[in-house]
Amino acid sequence: RERLARSNNMLGKGLLALLSRDKIDQDVWDEVEETLLMADLGSEPSMRLVEALQSRVRVEGTEDPAHVKQMLREELLKVVNPDLDRSLKLDGADGNPGVVLVVGVNGVGKTTTVGKLARVMVAEDKQLLLGAADTFRAAAADQLQTWGNRVGVETVRSEKDGADPASVAFETIKEGKQRGVDTVMIDTAGRLQNKAGLMDQLGKIKRVVEKEAPVTEVLLVIDATTGQNGMVQAKVFAEVVDITGIVLTKLDGTAKGGIVVAIQETLGVPVKLVGLGEGPDDLAPFDAEGFVDALID
Ligand code: GDP
Fold first, then answer.
1. What average pLDDT does this structure show over 171-187?
2. Quick one: which residues bind GTP (predicted)?
3. Which of 32, 104, 119, 212 has the largest CB neighbor count within 10 A?
4. Is the dihedral of CA 147, 279, 124, 246 positive or negative?
């Protein structure tokens, strides 16, 4: 909460300052909309929010700052959408482990997220197994294994570079089933050289894995600091595989928390987790109310 507040203050404080002016005229509303856009909220949600606030100020006939702040809070919460199901499907059924695929462009924080999430699950006494299906960069498997060692979880990886990512994923699930683990997490490659290649690779991973066990969660990792550009890449992933949840990383490094809303609107998938730093404990479930509170308190 405190860390979210730090990252988001700009948006909330800016809006409150605007709406606390003596007279709330059209110029103020334009500035409010501008502030929302600057915070990466996206144009449609920004417009919706301004229109809702504008009509409430008119209908309720008040410009009292405390009251307007309350309206802002309520309208922000609506665009963040507190009713989305943000629970993670980490458990399997029928003797199968839960299968979590983690996808996204290189450098967004996939491996780090797998490590952090593994740590949380270990703390909850879950048995798990990691799979290094990013076989294109040798360093990627090393990095995942380092995280695994750090949190006390084993990593399945290929001995040689350039192995088939799908076969590593398959081996991981098979091994996970044999061991009877609760959850298997697969870290995938994020080379976005062309959509067809990506589609082939992710599609094959999913197909092959599902021969062994149903995939319970596909997490798309997005770097919050890349703003609207990150969204373009996100859309490509969403086209090639059914995403069930978003992990928004590096929220500690941006004041543009509005990207949460833009992503959910564009992809129609809830933000489930947020990354708030590079350390093992810097992962938190996304909480709509806490997020909005952090914005404006
Ligand atoms: P991958 O290529 O998608 O697997 O990305 P990595 O997990 O290797 O992360 C890339 C870089 O981003 C690393 O330096 C991480 O420490 C850093 N990183 C990951 N998540 C966060 C986060 O939430 N906040 C910050 N500040 N850095 C992060």
1. 97
2. 104-111, 187-191, 249-252
3. 104
4. negative
User: Residue 3: which pLDDT band, with cuts at 50, 70 and 90?
Assistant: low
What is the number of the ligand 1 atom nearest to the C-alpha of 253? 26
Q: Residue of the nearest CA to atom 12 in ligand 1?
A: 109
Q: From ligand 1's centre to the CA of 115, what distance in Å?
A: 11
Distance spanning both ends of the chain, measured CA to CA: 11
291 closest CA partner among 247, 265, 260, 268: 260
pTM of the complete model: 0.92
Residue 117 banded pLDDT, cuts 50, 70, 90: very high
Alpha helices, H only, the chain: 2-19, 26-38, 43-60, 65-80, 110-123, 138-151, 165-179, 195-212, 227-240, 259-267, 288-296
Looking at residues 13-23, what average pLDDT do you find? 84
Minimum-distance ligand 1 atom for the alpha carbon of 106: 2
User: For a pLDDT cut of 90, what percent of the chain falls above it?
Assistant: 59
